[in-house]
Amino acid sequence: LPQRLATLATAAQEEARQSHQQLQAQQQEVTRLQEQLSRARQDGERWASALQRAQREALEREATRGAEQARQQELIRDMKGRLLELLREKDALWQKTEGIDSPVPSPAPREAGLCARCHKDFSLLSRRYSCRLCQGKVCHMCSIDMGKHGRCCLLCYQQRHPQAT
């Protein structure tokens, strides 16, 4: 019996030692899991803080964009109003000038070496053109290219195309 008790005691001690080791291993595992949980909570707090900051910045950007859009719409409204004012002013001026006759082109000067409009001397750099309408001699600056019809002086062009003035 004493030997059996000694064997049982030894077995119980061995079992207690194994249980103690298992308990230590489980405690280490619990400690490790608690550290992971703590890190996960810290990460969660950082992410929540970053999310709040991003949402706040998005709301600020949206408010800024809304204010900018309101300013642009106001500017567009102002520009449309100004355009209407200018159109009314143009119509009023057009009605005032509707009965006014266009001036008659001045005759070409007798000297063939001068421009009929600006009286500048013709030279290598200032070419002479014949107006296709009044036959006056004009320089490049005082004439307009009418495409296949050639060039004409500004006065004749304005008389023929009053909407261009």
From TrEMBL:
Q: Which InterPro entries match?
A: RUFY4_dom, Znf_FYVE-rel, Znf_FYVE_PHD, Znf_RING/FYVE/PHD
Q: Could you list the residue ranges forming a coiled coil in this record?
A: 9-57
User: Domain FYVE-type: where?
Assistant: 109-161
Q: What keywords does the record list, in alphabetical order?
A: Coiled coil, Metal-binding, Zinc, Zinc-finger
- Molecular function (GO) terms listed? zinc ion binding
Q: Which domain of life is it from?
A: Eukaryota
SUPFAM superfamilies given for it? FYVE/PHD zinc finger (SSF57903)
Q: PANTHER family, per this entry?
A: FYVE AND COILED-COIL DOMAIN-CONTAINING PROTEIN 1, PDZ DOMAIN-CONTAINING PROTEIN
What name does this protein carry?
Answer: RUFY4 protein
The gene behind this protein is Rufy4_1
